[in-house]
Design goal:
1024 residues; mainly alpha; four-stranded mixed β-sheet; 61% helix; elongated
Length: 1024
């Protein structure tokens, strides 16, 4: 049988083999064994011989070492040692139990060890290390272990005191004084515990005993404590508090602390509310500690988290206050008598699972104790009259891209950094790992406990791995800290605690809400969470009875459930005007989805969510078609973008593709008008090319039309034509004239954008014929007229263009369609600009801009700003032009659009006119980086500004090529070149021609006939 060896190093050394005591024959053998136990791994023979036999000659020391090793092997077995010529160590395969090593493992750091670990460690400490041995190397270890023991004893005393276990706190404080007579903190623990037990006389006697010993010179704090004990009629003292000493520093929350402290001066019951892990407990401790001096009767902490029975609430409060039970007397009444008229603060932590009992006890005590104040923490209010509930926020989330100095000011990052350094002292926040730290804090919603759990992982994982694994946050976030209650050891258990306190109906409703991403409205909660198709009152009648049952209103049911979840801090509500919007932390949402999947409801609720989003998007789209409230509906739909994305993601993986295309088509108008054009293209492309979306349905045809129209202003516009052919084919087969007319309009509009004016006219005229027969479809009608006006404008048929736009304007203004009115004013500005009527162009552009600004139509606003900027340029108002172009760039930036080459080309001209050729070059290069940024419509404008730059540098040959190429491109109907630029180009070309020889100019003219845009830019900027 393999032997088991136990060695006790505390006190005199003791050895057991398989439970039987044994001993080494030599004291040096005991010292050598102790040394090897306390120094794991190979140790130098020479060093050991020197430590144990330092006064002997080398040969004598080595001989003594051999004899000692023989003694150890004889008693403990030949396999006990692993030896080489130069080193010695204990065999790691040998099973050994060593009290000193176990002591160190149990303690770790005493301040962070649990009560069971501290108690177990102190039981092992029978005396100082290796009593009776006086080797020099032992002294250091003996002192170190003694210091650890005293720290553990002090911490355990504080823990018992915090729990209200004053008898044990007293016993351990007295033991601490015996071992360390000069420990003034131990004196305070003794006095406090005696006073808290109601033994004022013994507290007085013990203080005098300690004072008479003369060994301690008491501080002001200890003297004030003793004085207050003497002055207190109820055997308690000001500054008496059993508040637990936090094991970690308090991070941030300065404003929150101030608010809580102010509330405690205004209300006698303040309840800190918040989701699990939000930091309610830590905030309550800090707040109570900072204002403890205001309460002459003391500050008393009562932790209710371990309790399961309501009757234990009063008992726990009484125990914390040192109230003893008496036969035939109410403990609550005894507690009230104990408090009396003292100015006293009670902190009740974790009330949510015992709300009714807490409310009854608190209400009674507040009624009969006029100077009492209660600070409670709970996930929902206690419901006592006069209660001031205060929502504890999670930490603010850090923004990506901030520098380290700014990030370190963020409370989430500060918490992660400090707790991370406790787990791994080498961890630092760097520019390299800052993105991962930001990601961790954001993924965890700024929940303090979740951040602490994540930081603890740095003990064994690099921060990059922690960030990566947080996608499985419920599995990864756990901690084996014995001092934490079970529900605080994992994020999942923490939320389980709240979830299990809900009623069955509340649990069902909560998990269904998990399907929403980015929040939800009340109506959405009724339909998706409640499962009600409408809010009509559903009346149920008793069978055979004459009296009907109470009517059940779905809206009332859902409102009650939302309020219940809000009360329990599981959801939040925000208000914008009269509109309320609900949300939950992403961590809670993921938990809800997990529960939804467990209940086999996930697919059903996702389908219901998708149907709701389709209905909502369609209703919003109808309002976006020129209605007076289109801005409001645009904002409402923007608020639901995350839900739209979630619904579409569900469709792509498991849903009905036809429904997905219906949602995509309903979203098209919003996407392209509100700055989400690229996202809209991506979704519609994924939808129509999905293998399960190839059935020729009405929804597919509309999705095809939406995607084709989304491609109008892109380099992929050529792909739009076959898409429209398929859509028209589907609508034709379905024999739906209305939808077919809309598709014809879309087809003509796309031809117009691609510059194929001849192809654009037939479908637009067919559509116009339908809408003139159906005037109620005014929104598309005015769009068709506007498109025909743009075709006429491109054909330089200005009277015809004006006629179409005026007709469109008359209808849109009569219908109150400000969107089309704004667009028509824009086109009228283009018509005037094209005829070189700059004053009228400016008037129409400004009128259009006035209409567009409130609509949040950034792309349209940006176009108008750059048009007005160019007009200011031609009026030589350069400061005004610069301001307009700068605002134009801001508008494009707001929708993540790089903007057009038009405005950058004009900025180059302004810089050149101001004599700054370097700035002009930078603007021109910026416009052409990459070259694809130069849209076909603005090629000529850019080339003219590039030619101006070449001319200013004295390169007449290049300037001539560029002017000639720019003017040649204007034959393409898609290219726009307003008269001022054309006139300028022609004038400058003539000037350049005069400076060149005829042969050189002819060569430039021939080059201009074949050169490409890329080659043209390369003449000036070869690096591009």
């Amino acid at each position: 049988m393999k032997q088991k060896i136990r060695v006790r190093l505390f006190g005199a050394i003791q050895i057991e083999i398989n439970g039987k005591p044994t001993a080494l024959q030599r004291r040096k053998a005991e010292a050598l064994l102790a040394y090897l136990l306390l120094h794991p791994g190979p140790q130098s023979r020479e060093k050991i011989a020197s430590l144990l036999w330092g006064d002997s000659l080398d040969d004598d020391a080595r001989r003594s070492l051999r004899v000692t090793l023989t003694d150890i092997r004889k008693v403990l077995g030949d396999e006990i040692l692993t030896a080489s010529r130069d080193t010695l160590s204990l065999n790691p395969a040998q099973e050994m139990e060593v009290d000193a090593l176990t002591f160190s493992q149990l303690l770790g750091t005493p301040e962070t060890s649990s009560i069971p670990a501290l108690a177990s460690a102190l039981e092992l400490y029978r005396g100082d290390l290796l009593e009776g041995m006086y080797d020099e190397w032992i002294a250091h270890y003996r002192e170190n272990y003694r210091r650890m023991m005293l720290a553990a004893l002090g911490t355990l005393t504080e823990r018992y005191r915090a729990q209200g276990d004053y008898s044990r706190a007293l016993d351990h404080a007295e033991r601490l004084l015996t071992l360390d007579p000069y420990n003034e903190k131990a004196v305070q623990h003794v006095l406090f515990s005696l006073a808290a037990k109601g033994d004022k006389e013994r507290a007085t006697r013990r203080f005098k005993e300690l004072q008479d010993q003369g060994d301690i010179e008491f501080s002001r704090e200890t003297l004030a404590l003793y004085k207050n004990i003497q002055q207190s009629d109820s055997s308690t003292a000001s500054k008496l508090t059993n508040l637990p000493r936090p094991l970690t520093s308090f991070i941030g929350r300065e404003d929150e602390l101030s608010e809580v402290e102010t509330l405690l001066t205004q209300a006698r019951l303040v309840t800190l509310l918040g989701a699990g892990g939000s930091g309610k407990t830590r905030l309550s401790i800090q707040a109570a500690d900072e204002i403890a001096h205001q309460y002459m009767g003391g500050v008393w902490w009562v932790d209710l988290s371990p309790l399961t029975e309501p009757d234990l609430v009063t008992q726990s409060i009484a125990k914390a206050l040192g109230v003893k039970e008496k036969a035939n007397q109410s403990l609550l009444n005894l507690t009230a008598e104990r408090i009396g008229d003292q100015h006293l603060l009670i902190v009740l932590d974790n009330c949510e699972h015992l709300l009714s009992a807490c409310a009854q006890s608190v209400e009674y005590l507040l009624t009969y104790c006029p100077q009492l104040t209660v600070l409670a923490t709970s996930r929902e209010p206690l419901g006592v009259e006069g209660e001031a509930g205060w929502q504890v926020p999670t930490f603010p989330l850090p923004e990506a891209g901030l520098n380290i100095k700014v990030l370190k000011k963020n409370e989430s990052v500060r918490l992660f950094l400090e707790r991370g350094q406790s787990a791994n002292t080498s961890f630092q926040l760097t520019e390299a790992n800052a993105p991962q730290v930001v990601n961790i804090c954001r993924k965890l919603d700024g929940i303090p406990l979740a951040i602490e759990l994540a930081a603890a992982l740095l003990r064994s994982l690099p921060v990059e791995e922690v960030s990566h694994r947080l996608d499985q946050r419920f599995e990864i976030l756990h901690i084996s800290d014995m001092s934490r209650v079970p529900r605080q050891k994992t994020l999942h258990a923490l939320i389980d605690w709240s979830y299990n306190l809900l009623t069955n109906t509340e649990q069902i409703f909560f998990r269904r809400l998990g399907v929403f991403t980015g929040g939800w409205t009340f109506d959405a909660a009724v339909v998706v969470g409640g499962g009600y198709e409408a809010e009509n009152i559903q009346k149920n009648f008793n069978e055979g009875g004459s009296t009907s049952a109470l009517p059940i209103n779905p809206a009332d049911i859902v409102l009650g459930l939302l309020n219940a979840l809000r009360r329990r801090s599981l959801i939040q509500v925000s208000y914008t005007g009269e509109t309320s919007r609900y949300s939950m932390l992403e961590t809670l949402r993921e938990y809800a989805v997990e529960r939804l999947e467990e209940s086999k409801e996930l697919a059903v609720i996702h389908a219901r969510h998708l149907n709701y989003m389709i209905a909502f998007a369609r209703e919003a789209d109808s309002h976006l078609q020129g209605k007076a409230d289109m801005v409001e509906w645009g904002e409402r739909l923007k608020a639901e973008l995350d839900n739209v994305r979630a619904a579409l993601n569900w469709v792509m993986h498991a849903g009905d593709m036809n429904q997905g295309m219906a949602l995509g088509a309903a979203m098209y108008r919003f996407w392209v008008t509100r700055g989400f054009g690229q996202e809209g293209q991506d979704w519609l492309k994924r939808l129509i090319y999905h293998p399960h979306a190839q059935v020729r349905t009405h929804e597919r045809a509309y999705a095809l039309t939406g995607y084709a129209r989304a491609l109008r202003n892109t380099s992929e516009i050529g792909k739009a034509h076959p898409l429209m052919e398929e859509a028209i084919g589907i609508f034709t087969a379905l024999k739906n004239k209305k939808d077919l007319a809309y598709a014809r309009f879309a087809q003509g509009d796309i031809f117009c954008y691609s510059g194929d004016l001849e192809a654009a006219l037939p479908p637009l005229q067919q559509a116009l014929a339908y809408y003139r027969e159906h005037p109620k479809e005014s929104f598309i009608h005015v769009n068709v007229l506007s498109s025909l006006g743009r075709v006429a404008l491109a054909q330089k048929d200005f009277p015809r263009a004006y006629e179409y736009i005026q007709e469109s304007s008359a209808i849109s203004e009569a219908q109150g369609d400000t969107s089309m009115s704004a667009w028509n004013k824009l086109v009228l500005g283009d018509i005037a600009y094209s005829q070189n009527d700059l004053a009228l162009a400016r008037e129409n552009y400004e009128a259009s801009l006035t209409l567009y600004r409130p609509m949040n139509r950034a792309a349209n606003v940006a176009y108008l700003l750059e048009a007005l900027g160019s007009l200011a340029f031609w009026r030589s108002e350069m400061d005004s032009a610069i301001a307009l172009f700068n605002e134009c760039f801001q508008q494009y930036d707001s929708i993540n659009n790089v903007g057009t080459a038009f405005s950058r080309a004009y900025r180059a001209s302004i810089a050149q006119m101001q004599g700054d050729l370097q700035a002009a070059a930078e603007w021109l290069q910026r416009a052409a980086s990459p070259i694809s940024n130069i849209e076909d419509i603005y090629r000529s404008v850019y080339l003219i500004k590039l030619a101006d730059f070449s001319s200013a540098q004295g390169d007449s040959n290049t300037a001539a090529v560029l002017y000639l190429f720019a003017l040649r491109l204007t034959n393409d109907p898609i290219t726009v070149l307003f008269p001022p630029d054309r006139i300028h180009a022609e004038t400058e070309l003539e000037s350049v021609r005069r400076s060149m020889g005829e042969a050189d100019f002819e060569s430039a003219a021939q080059r201009a006939q074949t050169i490409t845009l890329e080659e043209s830019i390369g003449l000036v900027f070869p690096s591009l």
